[in-house]
Write a structure and sequence with these properties.
Blueprint (H helix, E strand, L loop, with lengths): L2 E9 L5 E13 L2 E11 L2 E2 L4 E8 L10 E7 L2 E2 L3 E2 L1 H4 L5 E5 L19 E3 L7 E2 L12 E3 L7 E2 L12 E3 L12 E3 L3 H12 L20 H5 L3 H8 L4
Parallel strand pairs: 3-6, 4-7, 5-8, 6-9, 9-10, 10-12, 11-13, 12-14
Antiparallel strand pairs: 1-2, 1-5, 2-3, 14-15
Protein backbone atom coordinates (compact mmCIF):
# COMPACT_ATOMS: atom_id res chain seq x y z
CA UNK A 1 0.00 0.00 0.00
CA UNK A 2 1.25 3.52 -0.85
CA UNK A 3 0.14 6.98 0.27
CA UNK A 4 0.76 10.27 -1.49
CA UNK A 5 2.40 13.08 0.45
CA UNK A 6 2.53 16.79 -0.20
CA UNK A 7 5.76 18.70 0.39
CA UNK A 8 5.73 22.48 0.72
CA UNK A 9 8.83 24.13 -0.74
CA UNK A 10 9.65 27.65 0.45
CA UNK A 11 12.27 29.82 -1.21
CA UNK A 12 14.92 31.12 1.20
CA UNK A 13 13.98 34.61 2.44
CA UNK A 14 10.75 34.47 0.45
CA UNK A 15 7.09 33.75 1.16
CA UNK A 16 6.40 32.00 -2.14
CA UNK A 17 5.73 28.27 -1.98
CA UNK A 18 5.48 25.24 -4.22
CA UNK A 19 3.53 22.07 -3.63
CA UNK A 20 5.51 18.90 -4.25
CA UNK A 21 4.13 15.38 -4.14
CA UNK A 22 5.70 12.11 -3.15
CA UNK A 23 4.92 8.56 -2.08
CA UNK A 24 5.90 6.50 0.95
CA UNK A 25 6.85 2.85 0.61
CA UNK A 26 8.96 0.13 2.16
CA UNK A 27 11.85 -1.11 0.03
CA UNK A 28 15.41 -2.42 -0.08
CA UNK A 29 17.72 0.12 -1.75
CA UNK A 30 21.22 1.57 -1.70
CA UNK A 31 22.98 -0.65 0.80
CA UNK A 32 20.09 -0.19 3.24
CA UNK A 33 18.13 -3.30 4.16
CA UNK A 34 14.35 -3.15 4.05
CA UNK A 35 13.39 0.33 5.17
CA UNK A 36 10.89 3.17 4.85
CA UNK A 37 11.43 5.43 1.84
CA UNK A 38 9.98 8.58 0.26
CA UNK A 39 9.96 7.62 -3.42
CA UNK A 40 9.40 9.20 -5.79
CA UNK A 41 9.17 12.92 -5.07
CA UNK A 42 7.45 14.47 -8.10
CA UNK A 43 5.94 17.72 -9.37
CA UNK A 44 9.02 19.55 -8.18
CA UNK A 45 10.76 22.39 -10.01
CA UNK A 46 13.83 24.11 -8.57
CA UNK A 47 15.43 26.74 -10.80
CA UNK A 48 17.29 28.76 -8.14
CA UNK A 49 19.82 27.69 -5.50
CA UNK A 50 19.15 27.31 -1.79
CA UNK A 51 15.42 26.60 -1.74
CA UNK A 52 14.04 24.98 1.39
CA UNK A 53 11.51 22.24 1.88
CA UNK A 54 9.76 23.25 5.10
CA UNK A 55 6.92 20.81 5.79
CA UNK A 56 5.50 17.49 4.66
CA UNK A 57 1.79 16.75 4.87
CA UNK A 58 0.25 13.38 4.15
CA UNK A 59 -0.65 10.04 5.61
CA UNK A 60 2.15 7.63 6.45
CA UNK A 61 1.89 3.92 6.03
CA UNK A 62 0.45 2.41 9.17
CA UNK A 63 2.92 2.50 12.05
CA UNK A 64 5.45 4.82 10.37
CA UNK A 65 6.56 8.40 11.06
CA UNK A 66 8.86 10.95 9.40
CA UNK A 67 11.64 9.74 11.67
CA UNK A 68 11.38 6.28 10.08
CA UNK A 69 12.30 7.50 6.58
CA UNK A 70 15.84 6.33 5.70
CA UNK A 71 16.09 7.31 2.02
CA UNK A 72 14.46 9.56 -0.54
CA UNK A 73 14.68 9.88 -4.32
CA UNK A 74 13.95 12.60 -6.85
CA UNK A 75 14.03 11.20 -10.38
CA UNK A 76 13.33 12.78 -13.79
CA UNK A 77 12.23 16.16 -12.43
CA UNK A 78 13.40 19.72 -13.13
CA UNK A 79 15.78 20.21 -10.22
CA UNK A 80 18.70 22.43 -11.24
CA UNK A 81 19.83 22.93 -7.63
CA UNK A 82 19.74 20.91 -4.42
CA UNK A 83 16.63 21.29 -2.26
CA UNK A 84 17.48 21.97 1.37
CA UNK A 85 15.81 21.04 4.63
CA UNK A 86 15.19 17.35 4.01
CA UNK A 87 16.88 16.27 7.24
CA UNK A 88 14.66 18.56 9.27
CA UNK A 89 11.72 16.58 7.95
CA UNK A 90 13.38 13.17 7.83
CA UNK A 91 16.05 13.32 10.56
CA UNK A 92 17.36 9.77 10.13
CA UNK A 93 18.27 9.75 6.44
CA UNK A 94 21.05 7.40 5.35
CA UNK A 95 21.03 7.84 1.57
CA UNK A 96 19.40 9.91 -1.16
CA UNK A 97 19.17 10.13 -4.94
CA UNK A 98 18.73 13.03 -7.35
CA UNK A 99 18.96 11.51 -10.82
CA UNK A 100 17.88 12.52 -14.30
CA UNK A 101 16.91 15.96 -13.00
CA UNK A 102 19.22 18.29 -14.99
CA UNK A 103 21.01 19.15 -11.73
CA UNK A 104 23.55 21.83 -12.67
CA UNK A 105 25.38 22.65 -9.44
CA UNK A 106 26.32 20.97 -6.18
CA UNK A 107 28.54 22.53 -3.52
CA UNK A 108 29.69 21.75 0.01
CA UNK A 109 26.97 23.85 1.64
CA UNK A 110 24.28 21.86 -0.17
CA UNK A 111 25.45 18.85 1.84
CA UNK A 112 25.81 20.61 5.18
CA UNK A 113 22.80 18.85 6.70
CA UNK A 114 23.83 15.32 5.70
CA UNK A 115 26.32 14.37 8.42
CA UNK A 116 24.84 10.84 8.72
CA UNK A 117 24.55 10.04 5.00
CA UNK A 118 26.57 7.09 3.67
CA UNK A 119 25.42 7.01 0.02
CA UNK A 120 24.68 9.75 -2.51
CA UNK A 121 23.50 9.38 -6.11
CA UNK A 122 23.84 12.35 -8.48
CA UNK A 123 23.94 10.31 -11.69
CA UNK A 124 22.43 11.31 -15.05
CA UNK A 125 22.39 15.07 -14.48
CA UNK A 126 24.13 18.11 -15.98
CA UNK A 127 26.86 18.73 -13.43
CA UNK A 128 30.04 20.24 -14.91
CA UNK A 129 32.20 21.27 -11.92
CA UNK A 130 32.96 19.63 -8.58
CA UNK A 131 34.67 21.86 -6.03
CA UNK A 132 37.32 21.25 -3.38
CA UNK A 133 36.23 19.69 -0.08
CA UNK A 134 32.80 18.95 -1.48
CA UNK A 135 32.21 16.38 1.26
CA UNK A 136 33.36 18.42 4.27
CA UNK A 137 30.05 17.85 6.06
CA UNK A 138 29.51 14.18 5.19
CA UNK A 139 32.15 12.29 7.23
CA UNK A 140 30.26 8.97 7.07
CA UNK A 141 30.02 8.95 3.27
CA UNK A 142 31.42 5.85 1.59
CA UNK A 143 29.43 5.54 -1.66
CA UNK A 144 29.09 8.22 -4.38
CA UNK A 145 27.75 8.13 -7.93
CA UNK A 146 28.42 10.97 -10.39
CA UNK A 147 28.15 8.88 -13.55
CA UNK A 148 26.52 10.16 -16.74
CA UNK A 149 26.99 13.88 -16.08
CA UNK A 150 28.95 16.52 -18.03
CA UNK A 151 31.76 16.95 -15.51
CA UNK A 152 34.87 18.53 -17.00
CA UNK A 153 36.56 20.04 -13.91
CA UNK A 154 37.13 18.29 -10.59
CA UNK A 155 39.23 19.82 -7.85
CA UNK A 156 41.98 17.44 -6.65
CA UNK A 157 40.92 18.15 -3.05
CA UNK A 158 37.35 16.98 -3.68
CA UNK A 159 37.70 14.05 -1.25
CA UNK A 160 39.25 15.99 1.62
CA UNK A 161 37.03 15.54 4.66
CA UNK A 162 36.02 11.92 4.11
CA UNK A 163 38.15 8.96 5.11
CA UNK A 164 35.96 5.92 4.49
CA UNK A 165 35.20 6.15 0.77
CA UNK A 166 34.72 2.62 -0.56
CA UNK A 167 32.97 3.07 -3.90
CA UNK A 168 32.74 5.86 -6.44
CA UNK A 169 31.45 6.07 -9.99
CA UNK A 170 32.52 8.88 -12.36
CA UNK A 171 31.95 7.03 -15.63
CA UNK A 172 30.62 8.77 -18.74
CA UNK A 173 31.69 12.31 -17.94
CA UNK A 174 33.45 14.82 -20.18
CA UNK A 175 36.80 14.56 -18.40
CA UNK A 176 36.69 10.87 -17.46
CA UNK A 177 35.28 9.32 -20.58
CA UNK A 178 33.48 6.04 -20.94
CA UNK A 179 35.61 3.81 -18.79
CA UNK A 180 36.38 5.38 -15.51
CA UNK A 181 36.73 5.56 -12.78
CA UNK A 182 34.26 3.11 -11.29
CA UNK A 183 36.16 1.79 -8.30
CA UNK A 184 35.42 -0.12 -5.13
CA UNK A 185 38.46 -1.03 -3.06
CA UNK A 186 40.33 -0.19 0.14
CA UNK A 187 42.43 2.58 -1.41
CA UNK A 188 39.64 3.99 -3.55
CA UNK A 189 40.26 7.56 -2.36
CA UNK A 190 43.90 7.52 -3.47
CA UNK A 191 43.11 5.71 -6.73
CA UNK A 192 40.38 8.15 -7.66
CA UNK A 193 42.44 11.20 -6.79
CA UNK A 194 45.24 9.92 -9.03
CA UNK A 195 42.85 9.31 -11.93
CA UNK A 196 41.07 12.64 -11.58
CA UNK A 197 44.34 14.55 -11.34
CA UNK A 198 45.39 12.96 -14.60
CA UNK A 199 42.17 13.50 -16.52
CA UNK A 200 40.20 16.35 -14.93
CA UNK A 201 42.64 19.22 -14.55
CA UNK A 202 42.14 22.60 -16.15
CA UNK A 203 43.54 23.09 -19.62
CA UNK A 204 45.88 26.10 -19.82
CA UNK A 205 43.57 27.96 -22.16
CA UNK A 206 40.41 27.25 -20.20
CA UNK A 207 39.29 30.48 -18.56
CA UNK A 208 35.54 30.08 -18.86
CA UNK A 209 34.80 28.32 -15.57
CA UNK A 210 36.22 27.78 -12.14
CA UNK A 211 38.10 24.52 -12.29
CA UNK A 212 40.33 22.01 -10.61
CA UNK A 213 43.08 24.32 -9.43
CA UNK A 214 41.09 27.48 -8.82
CA UNK A 215 38.96 26.55 -5.77
CA UNK A 216 38.93 30.14 -4.53
CA UNK A 217 36.69 31.06 -7.46
CA UNK A 218 34.44 28.10 -6.73
CA UNK A 219 33.77 28.96 -3.10
CA UNK A 220 30.25 28.05 -2.07
CA UNK A 221 29.56 31.36 -0.40
CA UNK A 222 30.53 33.31 -3.51
CA UNK A 223 28.34 31.19 -5.75
CA UNK A 224 25.31 31.16 -3.47
CA UNK A 225 25.53 34.49 -1.62
CA UNK A 226 24.72 32.81 1.69
CA UNK A 227 27.06 32.22 4.58
CA UNK A 228 27.70 28.91 6.28
CA UNK A 229 26.55 30.47 9.56
CA UNK A 230 23.20 31.61 8.14
CA UNK A 231 22.60 28.28 6.47
CA UNK A 232 23.28 26.34 9.67
CA UNK A 233 20.93 28.66 11.55
CA UNK A 234 18.16 28.10 8.99
CA UNK A 235 18.64 24.33 9.15
CA UNK A 236 18.92 24.26 12.95
CA UNK A 237 22.44 22.79 12.86
CA UNK A 238 24.56 23.17 15.96
CA UNK A 239 28.34 22.72 15.90
Amino acid sequence: MKFTIVIILLIYNSVSSLEVTGTYRTTTWSYVSEHYQCYPITNIEILEPKQFIETVAGKHLAGYLNSDVKTYAIVSQTVHFMPLGMTKIFPNLEAFQISGCALEQIDRLDLIEYKNIHSIYFNRNKLTILEARLFDFTPKLWHIDFSYNRIRHIDPAIFDGIENLKHGDFMYNTCTGEFGPQIGEDNVKYTMQKFLLQHCQNKPDDKSDCGCFRPQICSSERINHISEFDLKKKLGIRD
